[in-house]
Amino acid sequence: MHNRSTSLLLSAAVVFAFSAACWAQVTQYDEEQRMNMESHIGKLTGHATAGEPLYRRFCIGCHGPIGDGEGENAQWIDPKPRNFTLGIFKCRSTPTGTLPTDEDLFDTVGRGLVNSNMPRWFPLSDQNRADLVAYVKHFSPRFAKEKPGSVLQIPPEPPVTDERVKAGQEVFRHAECWKCHGVTGRANGPSADTLTDDLNRPIKPFNFHDGTRFKCGETDRDLYRIFMTGLDSTPMPSFADNLKPEEAWDLVMYLRSLQPMNTPEKAIAKKLGLKPISPNAAPAQSETK
Amino acid sequence: MPSFARGSIAVALFAVCIVLGCAPSAFAIPAFARKYGLPCSACHEAWPKLNVFGQTFKDNGYQLMNDRDSPIWQNPSYWPATFRITPNWHRESVSKVAVDAVNGVPGNQVERQINSHGFDLSGLDILTAGTLYNNVSFLLTPSSDNTGAFHFESAWVRFDNLLKSPWLNFKFGKFELDNVISEKRIMNLSNNSGSYQLYHFSPLYETQFANANVFGQIGDNQLGMEVSGHSHSDRTRYAASLFSSNDGNVNLPNGNSYTTYLDIDHAFDAGKLGVDRFGAFAMYGAAPTYYLTVGGSPLPGTGLGSKNFSREGVWGLLYFKKLDFTLYFQHGSDSAYFGTGTPSNVPLPPGAQAPSWNGGFVETHYTVNPQLIFIQRDEFVRMSKQPLVSLPSSLGNLDNYTFSLRWYPFMYSRAGFSIEPEYALTRQQGAAPITGTSLTSSSAFLGFDFDF
After folding, report:
1. Cβ atoms of A229 and A220 closer than 8 Å
2. Distance (Å) from the alpha carbon of B128 to chain A's nearest alpha carbon
3. Is the bond preceding residue A264 a cis peptide, omega within 30 degrees?
4. Is A190's pLDDT higher than 60?
5. What distance in Å separates the CA atoms of residue B451 and residue A52, rounded to the nearest whole number?
6. Are A115 and B67 a contacting pair at CB < 8 A?
7. Which of B35, B41, B411 best probes binding to A when mutated, by most A CB atoms within 10 angstroms?
8. Which domains are delineated in chain A?
């Protein structure tokens, strides 16, 4: 009996050791494969191996040594740093749920994220940023297995007209933007206080009256892209299936009228005497989406 | 003893006092790291030397421009203050010092080599810096020598992005001139390496006179105002300042003269090599050559007979991945009145001429990683015209060599600590106090440099 038990234990130990060795080899192989990750931005090719020392110099304090967003400063930061291992990114030109393009990540690194601790890394050289993108991609197995989604096609921006600004307000109402962003776009909608991100952490909607830049850019095209692709991992959905391109442009023009700077849209809204939408008058939530 | 050599000893002692006592007035501010949650290495190649991102942060008025710059975003308990001091051991050697020929008996003097070594302390910097509001920044640096005597090394307020443009910023107070190759961020701390010789150079013969031009010091913080600007990417920058010719001293001790300083530079994205930058600078000023007197003594603030001085040159930061070179060239010139110590209301001595010189340095860094950097610097100054035609042409020529490394055992976003061994040697022609031969001084230094 004693011998049998010993044999069983020995066998288990051998199996465990063999499994561990295999797992370690797979992990090592996986890591090496991932360190071959590249990024391609125009004529630039970024390399994860070149990005590693840059990441350790610039990014590690927030995003952490393994890219899980648990750097030494993460506990003090709100919003929390991105967890790269999940391969989920807010700023994309690709459909919701898909991977961003390398250009998307490159632009995000250079642009930074307003109202967060993520600065603009624009002063770094283009090559440095391309290398960083490759290294950021190496954290998530998704980039080894999936390709980025197809890039959203943005039609040319139409001229700003009274009708479009007014129509944009109607889109704002029936798409229920006001539920989170508030009837005046001040981030005080009825749902604003209940919002959480994918990790169940409280999150605030964007206040259109506060600042001139958006999370993922500052141009009209950026704004169009934001609500047509959504901000993955946040409650901001994609409206690609709900809005026609002309409606999306209408919405862009209305949102521009809410911002603190002087815009043609704001002048039109003032001329038209646009009043904030009334939630009570909003016909029906069923007609939206 | 040649009188100018005696003067040079006084200047050397003063420089030693400045370097050992007041330095390092260097800027590496963990308060910023704490504010933004970035490691020191984000802004510093190896602190206190800025990298391209840190330069942009500085040029934006200590702002990251991510809408979190105003203090309103900080926890009320946050206090933007940093302390920096460097306990050290050092050995100083001066090849020729005048001493009594018979110890304790005044009279004949001879030259002797003096070596001294032991444990010591640097001065203390209290660096408080940050933003008062969006686009309003400040720096206040009470600084003491190693005996605890304080002065204000920096005290300025700056308005950024005027007219909503990064091309227009305005600074007022006591500040460092816009030296991208900043002596306040010099990587070395010893007596012979803790400053750039050219940032403080005056001809050796000139230094013996009380009215020598001590106003034209590029390395010293100055009292005045500055207009500066840069492109959005910070690749192109300029700064123009106007300041009193008082070398940063308060209470207007010299008079009513002013000096201007201008720097223009541009950076290039050199692909995999890094970001390289080239610039040019010029400083033109005037300073008094004599004063009204009371009881025969100069009356402070009454400087008269102003004469001109100038410094101009070019510089560059060249990166080749982990290897980088800091290049600097300067041409300097002082009025013959400064050079010969002559008040401008009396005739110049025969053979007097405006002294001029050329000099430069190459500082090489090899940054193994943000926690280990090797530094080597070669600096030279060559006189091209002496204040008197009769003086030896090489009088005051100067060479300096520095070898050091800085090791940062840890790197995070709360405090900074580095261990720095270094060796530096300076040789100046004609500076020996009695024989007028060349004078060599050297420093061996081991410092524990920390700020928090």
Report:
1. no
2. 21
3. no
4. yes
5. 27
6. yes
7. B41
8. 38-145 (1.10.760.10), 162-287 (1.10.760.10)
Chain B residue whose CA is closest to A114: B66
* Residue B99 in tokens: 């001493």
Q: Kindly state the tokens that stand for A272.
A: 């038209």
ipTM attached to this prediction: 0.84
Tokens 């090592």 locate to: A28
Using 50, 70 and 90 to split pLDDT, how confident is the model at A65? very high
Nearest to A162 by CA among A19, A247, A269: A269
Q: Which of A39, A56, A57, A204 to mutate to test the interface with B (most CBs of B within 10 A)?
A: A57
User: Are B356 and B385 in contact, with CB atoms under 8 Å apart?
Assistant: yes
DSSP B17: I
What gap in Å lies between CA B399 and CA B401, rounded to an integer?
A: 7
CATH of the domain at B110: 2.40.160.10
Average pLDDT, chain B: 91
Show contacts of A222-229: CB within 8 Å, 24+ apart.
Answer: A223/A252, A223/A255, A223/A256, A224/A154, A224/A157, A224/A248, A224/A249, A224/A252, A225/A93, A225/A152, A225/A154, A227/A251, A228/A152, A228/A154, A229/A92, A229/A93, A229/A94, A229/A95, A229/A96, A229/A152
Nearest of B162, B163, B193 to residue B420 by alpha carbon: B193
Domain count along chain B: 1
B370 part of contact set with chain A, CB < 8 Å: yes
Nearest to B37 among A50, A117, A213 (CB): A117
Q: What is the pLDDT of residues A89-129, one digit of tens each?
A: 999 999 999 999 999 999 999 999 988 899 999 999 999 99
Q: Nearest residue of A to residue B55 by CA position?
A: A123
Given CB atoms, is B39 within the 8 Å cutoff of chain A? Answer: yes
- Report whether pLDDT(A186) > 60: yes
A138-142 long-range contacts (CB < 8 A, ≥24 apart) are A138/A34, A138/A35, A138/A37, A138/A48, A138/A51, A139/A34, A139/A66, A139/A67, A139/A68, A139/A84, A139/A85, A139/A87, A140/A67, A140/A84, A140/A85, A140/A86, A140/A87, A141/A30, A141/A34, A141/A87, A142/A86, A142/A87, A142/A99
Report helix, strand or coil for A173: helix
CA B195 from centroid of its chain's CA atoms: 6
Picking from A76, A120, A125, the nearest residue to B37 by CB comes out as A76
Contact state of B38 with A58 under an 8 Å Cβ cutoff:
yes
Give B195→chain A minimum CA distance, Å: 27
CA A239 and chain centroid, separation: 15
Residue of B66, B275, B413 to mutate for A, most A C-beta atoms under 10 A: B66
Statement: residue A203 has pLDDT above 80: yes
pLDDT at B122: 95
Query: The domain containing residue B197 runs over which residues?
Result: 3-451
pTM, 2 dp: 0.87
